[in-house]
Structure formats: structure tokens, C-alpha cells
């Protein structure tokens, strides 16, 4: 039995000096995230949560034919379980010691180093001859001078050393920084000592490669899938399909990238889950692959949905995404939700339709986001469901 600890502030926790604005802004997100990853808690496993799930939500999942997720309400622990954190940080290491047989984990200095964007930029340059990073800076004046030296109209991207699924990236559209640009830059410097300046590219396809890296460097459970991001690179959702016209041509290349990166990460002393981000960008009429946009030595948020899709035999196209509650107004009563969705409500027999995968809240507290799974026979069918859902319920 595994017990999952969704320490969703993992990426931010690696920063040297996390400021109050970042800590407060991510605190609620971190509290909600275990409920978006509830499907980790199936097949005898459990997810650590702060409050018990409502019976109405569990009944809704059961009507949909999904396994009933098991949760353990903190401070209780299933001490004989195998402890599995979202990522290994100080909080995870401390909680791990409470278990009967603490899990083996990589050294925290190794975790911090391989999750750093300087490390990923160096690997991309050394392994693939690609240098999309214009520099790593620890001084605001240097950053401003570097940006000002770029030709007018050429956009750039500011990235922290330790990010959070694209949140906190800052797209720079002008050679002169705005006051809000400077505020972000100074906060990132104060929290994490340096800022990376990258070339901005017009992405046309986002790709993730995930795998498990054993202590001896063996790569297992490697999967490639499509990711849906905002224009600025923040995560929206993931698409799982056995075959994809838009993705298949890039699979051999990103698989090769993953195997070469895995070898170097293992040499650093890391083992455990790894998620690599790649993208295809438009250069005039050509399509080019950015081989290593990010390296995340941790689990990924869509991991439970990937497992569910695989358990179905990969015979459906599945799009799992997160919605902001303030933008999509769904009925909070689950039978009413099923009625409102009509023919698009998830059907347990066909495994087709729209399914909410996380509760709208627990213990009287409303969540800011919730997960939605859209499943169909084809990508076109799933995209149509998504459009209909947003057209009907977006505020």
C-alpha cells in the first residue's frame, strides 16, 4: 500500500528565501491540490488530506464507475504504508520518518540542484546543442541591460530558478521593463538568488515526457503525452490518446531526449519520478522542437489520470483539465450536475462524457479550482465536449 503526500508547494519550497507574498498566494493552492489528485488513492492506496470527503461526491464517483478513492485525514497516517510524496523536500523527509519503514529518497541537495532551471539549461546546451537561455543573472541592473539590448519587437521570458508549473514566469514584450515587470523580477531575485532570461517562442504544441528513474539509473514507465498550457506557459490540462496526429511525429525525438537526460540526472545522484517539458514552436513555415524547456524531478499533477487512462486499456481519448471556480459555474449538487450535463454526463458503461474529478469543496470550504475529465472516442469528440461545457457554464 502506498500513501501519497501531495506537498503541492514542492517547487516553491526549493527557493532559498520564499517571501510572504509567494507563500500566501500558494498556501491555499497547496491545501486544495490533494483533492485534485484523489485518484492516487485507489487500488488499496491512500491520499493524505486535511478534511474528509463528502459522501455525495463519493457516491457521484461510484455512479460513474470509478474506484472509490481512499483518504487518510491528517494528522493520522497509515504508518505501515509506503510513503510517496509529490516531491522530496524537507517537509516530505520529516513526514517520511513517521512511517514504520521510511522510504529511501535522494539527497535534498541533489533534488534542489536537478530541479533548478540552470541545470536544465546546461543540459539542453550540452546534450542537444540548443541554447535558448540568454543568461542567468543575480542583479536587476544586469537583467535590465540585457533586455534593453534586444532588438525591438523580440520578446523574452523571465523564469525563476525554481518555478511552479509556469506560474510566476514573466513574459517581457518591450525592451523597457514596466513597474509590474520590475516587481516580479525583484521578488524572484530576493527569493531564489537568480533569474533566467530566455527567448520567447511561439509555441504550437506542448509535450510532456514522464518516467521513473531507479537507483541504478534504469528508466521505467516512460510515457509521452500532450499538455495544454496558457499562452504564457501555465498549465491547463493534459491529453491522453493512444495515437495522435499532432504528437506522434515528435515522440521518437522526445523519447531520445528523455533517455539522455535520465542518464545525466542519475549521474547527479537523483532517483524517483521525473517529468520533462518540451514544446514545438513556429519559425516561419518550419516547426522546431525545444528539447528541454523544463526538468521537474517530481510527480506530475496528471499522474493519477494517466494511471486511470492506462487501466481503461488506453481505448479512449481523455482530456483532463483544471477549471477556476470563478470562471465555470457548475451546479454544486452532483445529481443536478449530471442532469444539467444531459447526454454529455459521464457514462460508466461507455466511459464517455464529462466527469468532475475533484470536489467543489470540503468541510464547508469552497475550492478555487476543480478537475474535469472529458472522455470520448476521438479527439474531435472530446474537444466538442469541452467547448459545449464552457459555452454553457462559463460566467
| Overall mean pLDDT | 92
H and E string: EHHEHEEHHHEHEEHEEEEHEEHEHEEEEH
Q: Give the strand order of the largest sheet, numbering strands 1, 2, ... along the chain.
A: 13-12-9-10-11-14-18-15
* Coarse morphology: globular
Gyration radius, to the nearest Å? 21 Å
| Number of DSSP helical runs | 12
Strand content: 25-35%
What can be said about the biggest beta sheet? 8 strands, antiparallel
Protein structure class: alpha+beta
Strand segment tally? 18
**Helix proportion of residues, in percent?**
25-40%
Low-confidence stretches: none
Q: Separation of termini?
A: 42 Å
Task: Write a structural description.
The protein has 395 residues and is of the alpha+beta class. Helix content is 33%, strand content 27%. The protein contains twelve helices and 18 strands. The chain has helices at 10-13, 20-36, 55-63, 90-96, 108-114, 117-128, 140-148, 179-192, 251-268, 303-311, 334-341, 379-393; strands spanning 2-5, 46-49, 71-73, 82-85, 133-137, 156-160, 170-172, 195-199, 203-213, 219-229, 235-240, 272-283, 286-296, 317-324, 353-356, 361-362, 365-366, 369-376. The protein has an eight-stranded antiparallel beta sheet with strand order 13-12-9-10-11-14-18-15, with helices on both faces. The protein starts with a strand and ends with a helix.
Provide keyphrases for this structure.
about 400 residues; alpha+beta; eight-stranded antiparallel beta sheet; four-stranded parallel beta sheet; globular
Write a brief caption for the model:
It contains twelve helices and 18 strands.
Amino acid at each position: 500500500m502506498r500513501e501519497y503526500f501531495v506537498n503541492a508547494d514542492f517547487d516553491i519550497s526549493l527557493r532559498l528565501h520564499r517571501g510572504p507574498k509567494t507563500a500566501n498566494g500558494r498556501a491555499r493552492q497547496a491545501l486544495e491540490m490533494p483533492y485534485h489528485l484523489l485518484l492516487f488513492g485507489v487500488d488499496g492506496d491512500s491520499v493524505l488530506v486535511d478534511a474528509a470527503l463528502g459522501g455525495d461526491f463519493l457516491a457521484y464517483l461510484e455512479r460513474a464507475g470509478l474506484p472509490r478513492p481512499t483518504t487518510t485525514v491528517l494528522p493520522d497516517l497509515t504508518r505501515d504504508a509506503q510513503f510517496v510524496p509529490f516531491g522530496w523536500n524537507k517537509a516530505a523527509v520529516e513526514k517520511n520518518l513517521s512511517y514504520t519503514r521510511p522510504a529511501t529518497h535522494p539527497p535534498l541537495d541533489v533534488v534542489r540542484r536537478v530541479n533548478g532551471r540552470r541545470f536544465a539549461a546546461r543540459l539542453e546546451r550540452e546534450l542537444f546543442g540548443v541554447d535558448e537561455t540568454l543568461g542567468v543573472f543575480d542583479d536587476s541592473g544586469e537583467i535590465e541591460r540585457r533586455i534593453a539590448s534586444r532588438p525591438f519587437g523580440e520578446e523574452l521570458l523571465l523564469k525563476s530558478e525554481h518555478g511552479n508549473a509556469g506560474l510566476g514566469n514573466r513574459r517581457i514584450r518591450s525592451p523597457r521593463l514596466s513597474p509590474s515587470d520590475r516587481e516580479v523580477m525583484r521578488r524572484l531575485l530576493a527569493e531564489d538568488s537568480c533569474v533566467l532570461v530566455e527567448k520567447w517562442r511561439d509555441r504550437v504544441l506542448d509535450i510532456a515526457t514522464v518516467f521513473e528513474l531507479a537507483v541504478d539509473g534504469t528508466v521505467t514507465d516512460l510515457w509521452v503525452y500532450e499538455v495544454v498550457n496558457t499562452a504564457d506557459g501555465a498549465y491547463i490540462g493534459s491529453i491522453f490518446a493512444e495515437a495522435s496526429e499532432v504528437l506522434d511525429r515528435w515522440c521518437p525525438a522526445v523519447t531520445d531526449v528523455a533517455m539522455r537526460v535520465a542518464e545525466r540526472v542519475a549521474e547527479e545522484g537523483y532517483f524517483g519520478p521525473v517529468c520533462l517539458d518540451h514544446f514545438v514552436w513556429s519559425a516561419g513555415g518550419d516547426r522546431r522542437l525545444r528539447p528541454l524547456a523544463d526538468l521537474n524531478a517530481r510527480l506530475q499533477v496528471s499522474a493519477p489520470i494517466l494511471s486511470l487512462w492506462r487501466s481503461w486499456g488506453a481505448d479512449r481519448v481523455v482530456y483532463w483539465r483544471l477549471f477556476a471556480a470563478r470562471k465555470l459555474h457548475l451546479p454544486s449538487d452532483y445529481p443536478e450536475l449530471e442532469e444539467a450535463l444531459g447526454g454529455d454526463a459521464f457514462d460508466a458503461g461507455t466511459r464517455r462524457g464529462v466527469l468532475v474529478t475533484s470536489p467543489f469543496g470540503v468541510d464547508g470550504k469552497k475550492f478555487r479550482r476543480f478537475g474535469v475529465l472529458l472522455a470520448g472516442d476521438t479527439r474531435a469528440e472530446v474537444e466538442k465536449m469541452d467547448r459545449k461545457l464552457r459555452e454553457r457554464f462559463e460566467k
